[in-house]
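Hi, here's the filled form for the chain we discussed.

Project: internal
Contact: R.S.
Residues: 224
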Amino acid sequence: MPARARGLSGARSIGARPRSRGARARGDEPAVSRALAPALALFLFACLAPRPPAEPRYFSPRGDAAAVETPARETRTGAELRLRRVVASDHLRYRMVWRRGVEVGFHDLWRWTQPPASYAEARLARELFELRGLRRATRPDAASLAVSLVAFDEVLEPDHEALVVLDVILVDRAQVSLLDRTFTARRPVGGGDPEEVARALGEALSDAAGEVGAAVEIALVTPP
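And the returned structure, exactly as it came back:
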């Protein structure tokens, strides 16, 4: 082939125009869009899909470390005592309770592992029979102690504190009243975590149980 023909064979036609960078970019757009579509769909699904409901958290009032280390005290009476089943106000069930003035509410996701009345009964039994050495009786004619748990609340205002209130009635064998009194104990709550609330309520319950134990011991040796 003549040199002139070879030179002309590779030449661009006069009417042809080179592709611009913008045209090449526009040609790549469909491929990029197809690559991003699955990721975008996954992101939208994650945003719009219903979230699983929050799970409740369970706590127990572990505020009796001091009581565990306290040795049993020798009782001055040697008396028998029947501890009746502790009852609680209707609002004191599994959900933890908060109080603000006269308003009472519940933490929906903060729960006790047992009803608060069970904690109060166990703490009183330890105080009376293990620490103070009273003899536990089951006979109906023995002196008996009836306890009502009135408050087991997280107080929000004016101070953030734990509040425990126990109503106590002690009667002797002849059903004569020896003690009829309300015991109140408070402990500051160190923070807003439920663990701090549970710990403070446990400590307040131990304080109240100790006051009840001392008063019962005195009442059993004091003539009516």
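Let me know if anything looks off before we file it.
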